[in-house]
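Re: the request from the purification team.
They wanted to know what the chain is likely to look like in 3D before they choose a buffer screen. I agreed to run a prediction and write the result into the notebook, where they can find it.
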Amino acid sequence: MTSAHDRAMVERLRATAEEAMRRAYAPYSGFRVGAALLGRDGGVFPGCNVENAGYSSTICAERTAVTSAVVRGVRELELLVLVTESDEPTPPCGVCRQVLVEFAPDLPVISFAGGREARWNLAELLPHPFTPASLGRV
């Protein structure tokens, strides 16, 4: 747990992510994921994975949560909580890491699965990101 986020907030985000996971559309992989992003404004933005028969059209839970935040005008993210039904907590995939780093390079990530909890920082998960600075835009 980060010092800025108390256990009650983490549990609130976990409950939101669990509800989102139950709504996931994952008929091909069977791997349902729920996400909850905390915006700096205090808003909570849920997301779930939505699969598609054209596999490359699938969108992950983390990216649906980011999209939800951006639609509401929130671009400063504080915390990401993930929930899956797997045996081990899972981090965001590489594509989601790239999307998240655009908004919060040091985002704390907490993942729950199989009665376990794992914690990372996005900078750990994506140590050499491609950012606006890579384009010469800071």
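For the purification team: The beta strands are 33-39, 44-48, 77-84, 108-113, 116-121.
Please add any questions underneath this entry.
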